[in-house]
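Q: What does the predicted 3D structure of ATP synthase CF0 B' chain subunit II look like?
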Amino acid sequence: MTNFSFLLFQMLSTDTEGGLFDFNATLPLMGLQFFALTIILNLIFYKPVINVLDERDEYIRNSLTTASASLLKADELTKKYENQLGESKKRAQSIIKVAQEQAQEAVSVKIKDAQLDAEKLISEAYDQLSIQKENALKTLETQVDTLSDLIKLKLLND
């Protein structure tokens, strides 16, 4: 006979006691103990561990969701601040350009004013020189006349 049939034969025979499997009241009692232990372990150990793992999974999901939202918000803020920075640079450049144009305009006006003042001073100096020249010529004429009269007198007296 094969081993299986031998074992089956031994299990069914009532002569042998204490074999591999005894089908008496201990088997159902062990089954009940197994189920009771499974239920107790489930209530005492597995459910709290599963609850902790579920809470951890939920916390991780919430953290990831919050992190994703924060990342999106940070990206939006970064874009917003980059746009504001670009606009600020443009405004600063336009302000600088306007200030440079105003400064050039002011310098041009000052140069024109200085040129006009210089021309005016030159004109006044020329007028004064002309007046002094005329006065000098008049005095020279009067002196020449007196000298020529003196020379005539001297020549005629001698």
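A (community wiki): The structure tokens above were generated from the sequence. The mean pLDDT is 86. Residues 34-150 form one domain.
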